[in-house]
Amino acid sequence: MPRAPRLLPLWLCAAALCAPPAALPPRPRPACPAPCRCREAGILLRVDCSERGLSTVPAGLDPLTAYLDLSMNNLTELWPGVFRHLRFLEELRLSGNHLSHIPGQAFSGLSSLKILMLQDNRLGGIPAEALWELPGLQSLRLDANLISLVPDRSFEGLTSLRHLWLDDNALTEIPVRALGHLRALQAVTLALNRIGRVPDYAFWNLSSLVVLHLHNNRIQHLGTHSFEGLRSLESLDLNYNQLHEFPVAIRTLGRLQELGFHSNNIRAIPEKAFLGNPLLQTIHFYDNPIQFVGRSAFRHLPGLHTLSLNGATDIQEFPDLRGTTSLETLTLTGAGLQRLPPGMCQQLPRLRVLELSHNRIERLPSLRGCQKLEEIGLQHNRIWEVRADTFRELTFLRSLDLSWNTIRSIHPEAFATLRSLVKLDLTDNQLSALPLAGLGGLVHLKLRGNSALSQAFPKDSFPRLRTLEVPYAYQCCAYSGCPGFFAASGPRGLQHPPPDAQDPPRRTLADQAESRYDLDPEELQLDAEEPRPQPAVQCSPAPGPFQPCEHLFESWGIRLAVWAVVLLALLCNALVLLSLSTAGPGRLPPAKFVVGALAGANALTGLSCGLLASVDALTFGRFAEFGARWEAGPGCRVVGFLAVLGSEASVLLLSLGAAHCSVAAACVRAHGKVPAAGSVRAGALGCLALAGLLAALPLASVGEYGTSPLCLPHAPPAGRPAALGFAVALVLLHAACLLAAALACIWLSCGLPATGLEAAWDCAAVRHVAWLTFADGLLYCPVAFLSLASALGLLPVAPEAVKAVLLLVLPLPACLNPLLYLLFSPHSREDLRRLWPCLRGLGPLALGGAGPREPSSCDSTQALVAFPDVELSSEASDTHGLPSGALVPRQQPGGLQLEGGHVAEPEGTRFGQQPPDRDGGRAQGDPKASPAGRARAGGGGWQSSGLASGV
Fold first, then answer.
1. Could you give the CA distance from residue 447 to residue 426 in angstroms, rounded to a whole number?
2. Cα–Cα distance measured from residue 688 to residue 425, given in angstroms and rounded to the nearest whole number
3. CATH superfamily of 556-839
4. Nearest to residue 117, comparing CAs of 136, 135, 137?
5. Per residue in 292-323, is it b (16+ CB within 10 Å) or e — as a string?
6. Which residues 6+ apart lie within 8 Å of 56 measured at CB?
7. In this entry, which stretches build a coiled coil (predicted)?
8. Alpha helix ranges (H) inside 582-672
């Protein structure tokens, strides 16, 4: 055992090594500067001092800090060696401060720094000396500064730099020599500068560069070898420059996958333009004034997935895409394409999105070979027909946009095989019928603007429908809970809950789905689940008072009132016209001519209301079935034409009557004679012509008669500007005419001297015009207020109130005007006395046997209107101080005689017919035969004789 003692030390050493170590004291928690927030990352520390208003770097930063954020503060300078103790710092953020200069030793000691952010400061140059201290730097951001020059040795020591941002500065040229030191650079952006050209071999040493951004500069020229040496470049951005020629320098970029040079001034794409870029996947060169595209420009690009040619206005031929078999998205909008080649789908078997909007395409070839198509956009073209084989067997097609074309016909089997179609847009075409075969899976259907399309769309034809836009609100009656329409409209009062309240789990799953074709998430979920009860359909335009579902007149009160107005207007105006027609073969006096013309205009208004009442009666309870055809048909235009013609002619004639009374009074006062009767007839014909012109304007697309089933030019606030302006102009014209008539009546009454007021105001014509002006103006006030408030959106007005006013108050003057004449005008009593015996076949009427007449101060006026040969001599009444009239019969053979205070017609003449003037004029010796003799010489007063003769 001699060797045992020698092994003892070895055993002791082994035991010491195997013994557990003694407990070490815990490391103290690192200190965090007061204004900052700190977070531990293992043994290192992340310090966030951003947006703290700091003006200096905080003291007491832990040496184990690996991340330091000092962005968005007020730092103006950095002291040399301020970060010297932060040997483990890997990322330093100094963006958003006010640094204008960085000294040479500012970053000394940061041997581990990999990311440095200096963007959004006020640096006027590259801090080259400071960057030399960072040999391990991999990412440098110097964008959004004021750098205008990059010295040659700026990046000399940054051998590991991979990402460099120099965009949004003031550079005017490519820093060729400075970039030549960055052999490891993978991405550089020089965008948003003032660079005007890219010289040859500008990036010769950047063989590792993958991404190069030069967009938003002023580049006008690229050298033939500008991109020589960029053997690894995959993405090149030349958008928003001033290039005039196609960048042929890209042919040296054999690995290029994404190319953008849109928004330049390039006018031509040459033949085989991308011959050296077989790996291209995406090309964007829209918004260029391209006039020529080589037929072989896009040939043999098997990796190309996206091709965008938006805004190439002069492209008239579809490009040849042979060999470009991987193309999935083709966008060629705003060009001049007129046709598509028949073999397009054979060249593009993988095409999923075809966007050809805003072209001049008239006919579509068969797209049967493009079986993977999911979205087609053909809006704003000139397509006029969809044939049976156009979209046949496109079983994956989900969205089809054919809006804003001139499509007149669609083959009944055109959509029969589109099993996946969920969105169909046919807005603003010329369709008269829509085939429903194959459209059962639609979720969105848009048919606005097809004015000839009035067919019904039952619910059972679209079990999954969520959104429906139709030309007429009546086509929404089946989806709005209105009972009694169409086969699938459902039971009375059926209401559906809102979409958000139905099946929340289903909506949650649907919201997680993704779609690149602008389809609702619910649509994707609908395809994967079994059919469920249909939610409420959002159908527009929605039915309302002006687009009713059941009755044109929605209450019996309105219906009976309209019929009453119609009957009174037609009967009373017919009676007025008939009574005036018995006045004899001679011309009517001016006053009666205006009354007759006014009765004719009012009769037209009554006739238009009668046609509306007839439509209500014929479509009673099922107006939605005929509403669209009624609005778009000629009957509605006839009703609107008659309504506008009668209403405007009535108010114009009323203004003419008031103006005639005022002018006659002024002429009598100034000259002692009245204006010629022919001027009144000419004015009346002018009023009728103007009213006819106004009524014909909507027929020439100035205004609309078919905006509602009432066929009145009442435009809603969302209507066309022309229709809205026409409706407002009619209201203002009507109100202006009534105001002018009222002012004329007021001037006539207030301008008379006190001595002649009663005699002049009591004249029948003046009183009649005043009553009509007052009544019509009072009735038109609510019409004008509600029409303007509703059309211009000035006040929230209930459509029911507007409709009631338009149906009842607007045509009310048509029956009120003849009633006022028949009931209160002495002329009407004279005419009716003549009319009654004529109707009974008793022959001429002798007024002497008609019984005593009611005394009136206007008897002399009536005599003058009916018998111009009877002169009126005015003598002042000493008793009352008012002028009184005395009839002085003229002694002519066969003339009228006064018998017992009444006028008797001589035998052999008809009432109202004037015998010929045998002596050629008035009696020469009669001092009151002259016009001056009929006017009062002193005081300037107007006599009833002169005014009566004028009216």
1. 5
2. 46
3. Rhodopsin 7-helix transmembrane proteins (1.20.1070.10)
4. 137
5. ebbebbbbebeebbbbbbbbbeebeebbbbee
6. 75
7. none
8. 590-618, 624-632, 634-671
Does residue 863 sit in helix, strand or coil? helix
pLDDT value of position 941: 39
> Per residue in 609-653, pLDDT tens?
999 999 999 999 999 999 988 988 899 999 999 999 999 999 999
Task: Using alpha carbons, list the distances in angstroms from residue 236 to 211, 212, 271.
Answer: 6, 5, 21
CB of 820 closer than 8 Å to CB of 599:
no
CA separation for the pair 230, 615 (Å, rounded) = 79
- Confidence (pTM): 0.66
Q: Sorting pLDDT into bands at 50, 70 and 90, what band is 585?
A: low
> Cβ of 66: how many Cβ atoms within 10 Å?
18
Q: Apex CA 301: angle with CA 300 and CA 303, to 5°? A: 140
Q: Is the peptide bond before 80 cis (omega within 30 degrees of 0)?
A: no
Q: Which helix (H) or strand (E) holds 751?
A: none
- AA identity, residue 454: S
Task: Please write the tens of the pLDDT for every residue from 766-814.
Answer: 777 888 888 888 888 988 888 888 777 777 888 888 889 989 999 999 9
Sign of the C-alpha dihedral computed for residues 798, 800, 801 and 803 taken in this order: positive
CA distance 647 to 779: 13
User: Position of tokens 């965090």?
Assistant: 32
Do residues 64 and 42 lie in contact, with contact meaning Cβ atoms separated by under 8 Å? no
pLDDT tens readout for residues 512-558: 333 344 444 444 444 444 445 556 889 999 898 888 999 999 899 99
| pLDDT more than 90, % of the chain | 49
Residue 618 CA: distances (Å) to CA of 335, 551, 623, 637: 52, 10, 9, 18
Provide the CA 424 distance to its chain's centre, in angstroms: 21
**Which residue ranges make up each domain of the chain?**
362-493+516-543, 556-839, 856-913+926-950
Beta strands in 278-427 (DSSP E): 282-284, 292-293, 306-308, 329-331, 353-355, 375-377, 385-386, 399-401, 409-410, 423-425
Quote the Cα angle for 230-166-156, to 5°.
Answer: 70
303 pLDDT more than 70: yes
The CATH architecture one would assign to domain 362-493+516-543 is Alpha-Beta Horseshoe (3.80)
User: Rounded distance, CA 141 to CA 117, Å?
Assistant: 5
